[in-house]
Amino acid sequence: MSNKHCWVFTDSIPYGNDEVFLKQELEISEKQYSKWVIFPLNPVGNLNPELSNFTFVTLSNEEKYIPLRNIFFKHFLLIFKLTFAEIFVNKIYFLKNIRNSFFQLLNDIKIATAFIEHYDKNYKKGTILYSYWFDRWSNILSIAKLFRPELSFVSRAHAFDLYEEDNKNGIIPFRKFQLKQVSKVFTVSEHGEKYLVNKYPKYANKVTHRHLGSPDNGFSQNVLSGNELILISCGSVQPRKRILDIPPMLAMLKVPFHWFHVGDGPEFEKLKVSVSEFNLRNSITLLGRLNNEEFHQLLTTHPNAIFISISRNEGLPYTFMEAISHGTPIISTDSMGCGELVNENTGLLLPKGIDNMEIAAAIEKFYCEKSGDVEFRKNIRKYWEKNFNGLINYSSFHKSLCEDYAR
């Protein structure tokens, strides 16, 4: 165990049930530091008992009684400076959304000042400041660094917090400011690294990629023989995931099949209607939201399954890592970082713009040629062990943080 401390800045953990992959990173890496402190931005829901060994600080509770007008008058020059710089970079967006942008900035300064108080009282040499998302916490820490120039922080970057095209009006506010202030950005995919470097070449030396990883949830080497194709997908039912396109594609299959979908979302009711319209109710099970243990049980129960995704935009899906840890092959569209995980060793990468008939034909061909191949599934598992084993990836990542960024 290192004598270093790690302060990790999260969306909600240790509260609620989201950020499952971060929870697993914390559990795997717990003993790499003598102390962890978690700073949740949105402490909503029940406290997760599995993270009871971690210290947590809810700054949003400490600063909620400070009126925003006090922040405005006390930090007027800072607000003017940051606002003017952002208008210069993103004039149209900022002016269109001036009310929301202004109050968001006030709230970020509010939390930053609360954090500085905590920092002054509790920071010890050898502490790493690690933001899990490259969004609001990175902005808050960037503001805090204006008050404490010696402050150093690093951040991961995933998808929504990285790809500006996926955000409202195609921008992420204060991005250049964040890049100027952060010490290092670790994208979760090589694709993400190239995207950020190409978009902001001035900060190329601050950007690299480090893959996430998943825990070992077991591997069944005995592929069950069966008379039907088993397909599993997981994701929020929303436009960019293209879940609504799956039923009409499945209706084109010429082999018996059963599709299990994990996840709900804003288009979930439309998905139910689509299943009925294509008369697929006996061939589809919509499971809604499952916890992580239930998801892995589904993969274990169906060792002959194929995991599918036809999403329009994906970073490097964590569910893909979990699937290949079971030896489950993946058929996915070539979206952003997906090609770093889906290849001839793990499944089939489909070209962009492929239509439903072509997807159905590709699935059938893969099913007939690869699905029952035990050796192929063993090699999928080996690929996971080499590239996406959480124990290896997280140990290496936090070792490098201790060596390079503990101040």
Give a written overview of the molecule.
39% of the residues are buried. The chain is built from 16 helices and 13 strands. The chain has a seven-stranded parallel beta sheet. A six-stranded parallel beta sheet has the order 10-9-8-11-12-13, with helices on both faces. It folds into two domains: 5-213 and 390-405, Rossmann fold; 229-387, Rossmann fold (3-Layer(aba) Sandwich). Strand 5, helix 8 (175-181) and strand 6 form a beta-alpha-beta unit. The protein is α/β, with parallel strands linked by helices.
Walk me through the topology.
Elements: E1 5-10, H1 20-29, E2 35-40, E3 55-56, H2 59-62, H3 68-74, H4 76-89, H5 91-96, H6 98-122, E4 127-131, H7 136-147, E5 154-157, H8 175-181, E6 184-187, H9 190-199, E7 207-209, E8 229-234, H10 246-250, E9 257-262, H11 268-277, E10 284-288, H12 292-301, E11 306-309, H13 318-325, E12 330-333, E13 347-350, H14 356-370, H15 374-387, H16 390-405
Parallel strand pairs: 1-2, 1-4, 2-3, 4-5, 5-6, 6-7, 8-9, 8-11, 9-10, 11-12, 12-13
| Secondary structure: helix percent | 40-55%
The low-confidence runs, each spanning 5 or more residues with pLDDT under 50, are none
From the helix content, strand content and strand pairing, which structural class follows?
alpha/beta
What is the number of helices?
A: 16
CATH superfamily of the largest domain: Glycogen Phosphorylase B
Task: Report the mean per-residue pLDDT as an integer.
Answer: 89
According to DSSP, the number of beta strands is 13
What share of the residues does DSSP label as strand, in percent? 5-15%
Describe the main β-sheet briefly: 7 strands, parallel
CATH architecture of the largest domain: 3-Layer(aba) Sandwich
CATH hierarchy, class of the largest domain: Alpha Beta
Order of helices and strands: EHEEHHHHHEHEHEHEEHEHEHEHEEHHH
What is the alpha-carbon Rg in Å?
A: 23 Å
- The end-to-end span amounts to 17 Å
* Total number of distinct structural domains: 2
* Shape call: globular
Going across the major beta sheet, what is the strand order? 3-2-1-4-5-6-7
Which fold does the CATH topology of the largest domain refer to? Rossmann fold
